[in-house]
Amino acid sequence: MSKYQVDLTNCDREPIHIPGKIQAHGFLVAINSKTFVISYISQNIKEFIEKDARHFLGKPINELESYLKISGAKDQLTNLLNLANNSKNFDSVNPYQITIDQNSYNIILTSSNTELILEFEPGTSDLNFDVQKTIGRSVSEILSGKNLNTLLKNAAFEIKKIISYDRVMLYKFHEDGHGEVVAEVKNDDLEPFLGLHYPASDIPKQARELYKTNLTRIIADVNSTSSAILTFQDENTPLDLGNSALRAVSPVHIQYLKNMGVQSSFSISLLAHGELWGLIACHNYTPRFISYKARDASKLIGQILSSALEYRQEEENTENLSALDNAATELSKYIKLDNEISGALTSHSATIKDITNAAGAVLVFNNTISRIGITPNEEQIEDILLWLKSNMQNNIYYTNNFPELFLPAQNYSNVASGILACSLSRELNELIIWFKPEQLEAITWAGNPEKPVEQAENGSMQLLPRKSFEAWTQLVKNTSVRWSNKEILLVVKMREEILDAINRKANEIRLLNDRLQLAYEELDTFSYTISHDLRTPLSTIKTYSELLLARNKSLDDSAKTILTRIVAGTDKMNLLIKEILRYTQLGKADIEAAKINMQLLLTEIKDEVVAGIKPENLEFTIGKTPDIAGDKTMIGQVFTNLINNAVKYSSRSVPAKVKVEGIANHDETIYSVTDNGLGIDVTYYSRVFELFKRMDNVKDYEGTGVGLAIVKRIVEKHNARIWFESGLGIGTTFYIAFKN
Ligand code: ADP
């Protein structure tokens, strides 16, 4: 353990409620509550009544009374003590005003275990202020504050009016125990302390405990020497001064005040929900005693402020919570109603960002990253996603010091010091992340909080409050405001709703798919039946037309032409029907995949296609032919169609050039069929593969518009891709990429 730690622990252990000393501006007498015998007395009584303190120890209270020369009725102290003993409530008697030797005093009565304590303090101070009159107005002034900040500022202002100290600060304790000056009213010549932060060690733990029961404390003059409390009793049972008004404060604290140039100090506790919320800390730069009444009025203001704090803080919290709740309700409505999840979460007036107090949120869904508010950039988000993938054990993960865990985030800690992540799908790496910025990029500390202990003048490491009070800046880096339970709760709830909606939508899509599949099958069967049934009457028409032509020599020329056209029409229709049958059959056919010798297949197709074309009219090249896996018949159909088209639509080029070749890549084998023919207008790009679609520039070429639809169907069945490049009047290349 280092010396620093020893010193600090000592500070926390210093028994400040039993210091055995009081401040010198008053004197103290404690009597046994049963016997009324004086059991403790402060040494400085001699300064007030010129009689040695020891004289009174062990004597009854009357003995003191006779020396005090209290004006008015006899036995006042005894009567007061009897009253106190019976009522047990000192508020009604405090302060008890007496006059000793023409000086007015307030007696403040408190108790400790077995003793009743009488503290005599000056009845007057240099304040010419009628507390009673103004207190009502002060309270209504304070409560007129619309928000917490004005409330605090008003309170500081009213306290300053009552006690006339040079500086009144409202000091709020943070979660980690350190304090911040959140409101301040001061004389113009003083440097402001507003916004300064004080380390937790400035007010030791046991002092805080005491502040919860004894709500005000005054140190009238830091330079006066405190007076010892004498007793005839066992030295080990010092008088408990927890409730005392004159209690001397720790020399460490006195030194602390002296370092700041403060000569007297007064503080009032502020409690919210039974816990110390903060202090009203008042400093004066000359010694200044505050009368009991003014202290009591300040205490009252402190108490009123405390209850207002509870209420206002709660109100502010509730406002925030209901804003989050409202956003969550709105969002869940969109999740239920919208067709599309990511739109529901990001595109309305309430978004995922609004169900927390985050500054930004990111939705990673369906391979897209949607950002709302202040978030890291896409590249940084990708890094965070990777990190989360290996570090996120549960569906929800959160931290308020992310850059400490993931070092690259230190470069953008102003955006992502706090992250809250909620996984939607682990397999797809889909999730939502909320971001909170660095809480305070720089806190202005009053003095160095790391160094409350300093080297004493004699060189030893003593516990001395630090001497320097210049603002010292400590960077509270990489930390955001914490994620509250409410935020986490709403995120968990929303996650369930999203998953529910995703499931529901997936089911709907599956159902639609099934129905679509059924419709396709029905359509295929229908087309197949129709086409099939058309073939018989069609061949009857053709046969009879041909018969008529052959046998009827008497037919005139126009009748012959008509019959010839009928025969040609039936041929065309036959071709169309054949193609449709091929197309519909493909819907049902299963693939029998096997390795295909492409050299062989392509040569056969070429021979078939070029038969009847003079070699000088067509340059047909077959380049490299890497083998592929697939259904041989179907792949044959694909290349027959593509090559037929290439030859057909380049037949008017002189000479026509057609080239087929394949290239095997790392994971795909890509075949291309190139011609130097008509070309395809790119505005029709997506329609070329549709059934019965033919381009405007091929009207005087034979065709049905079914071929490429068949090709597309086969290609899809093989999980391959097809596309083309073309230039009008230049030529066309179709590509098919087969997976290896
Ligand atoms: P078709 O029987 O009309 O050739 P396809 O389905 O095979 O029907 O082709 C559809 C349409 O695409 C064709 O009518 C034509 O307009 C266009 N097309 C296909 N291949 C080519 C090509 N190599 N050059 C120019 N146009 C083509």
TrEMBL record:
Keyword Phosphoprotein: yes
Catalytic activity of the protein: ATP + protein L-histidine = ADP + protein N-phospho-L-histidine
Gene Ontology biological process terms from the UniProt entry: detection of visible light; osmosensory signaling via phosphorelay pathway; regulation of DNA-templated transcription
InterPro entries per record: BphY/WalK/GraS-like, GAF, GAF-like_dom_sf, HATPase_C_sf, HATPase_dom, His_kinase_dom, HisK_dim/P_dom, HisK_dim/P_sf
Coiled-coil regions, chain positions: 495-522
GO molecular function per UniProt: phosphorelay response regulator activity; phosphorelay sensor kinase activity; photoreceptor activity; protein kinase activator activity
EC number: 2.7.13.3
Keywords: Chromophore, Coiled coil, Kinase, Phosphoprotein, Photoreceptor protein, Receptor, Sensory transduction, Transferase
Superkingdom of origin: Bacteria
One Pfam entry name: PAS_2
Gene3D superfamilies: 1.10.287.130, 3.30.450.270, 3.30.450.40, Histidine kinase-like ATPase, C-terminal domain, PAS domain
Limits of the Histidine kinase domain: 529-740
Phytochrome chromophore attachment site domain boundaries: 147-303
Family per record: In the N-terminal section; belongs to the phytochrome family.
Name this polypeptide is given: histidine kinase
Species name: Mucilaginibacter arboris
Organism ancestry: Bacteria, Pseudomonadati, Bacteroidota, Sphingobacteriia, Sphingobacteriales
